[in-house]
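Workshop exercise sheet. Pairs work together: one partner reads the sequence aloud, the other fills in the structure field after running the prediction. Swap roles for the next sheet.
Pair: D.N. / O.F.
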Amino acid sequence: MAHDTIAGIVERSGELAGLPFPIHAHMLRHGTGYYLANRGIDTRTIQSYLGHKNIQHTVRYTELASTKFQGLWDD
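Structure field:
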């Protein structure tokens, strides 16, 4: 599939869902990053999976992860 085709499908899906803001295909990539970070996946693993050359592009996902400190003090 061409990039434009995927972008159109994602954009139209957002419209059909009645979302109050425009949707773009790159949001799927961001959603994946946040999902993996919230599952507690290692930052370097997320970096590799998303193909980021710079770790700072990946850190944004892990900074907001709700599970960031989960289990830190478990016995």
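Discussion prompt: Residues 3-63 form one domain. What would you look at next?
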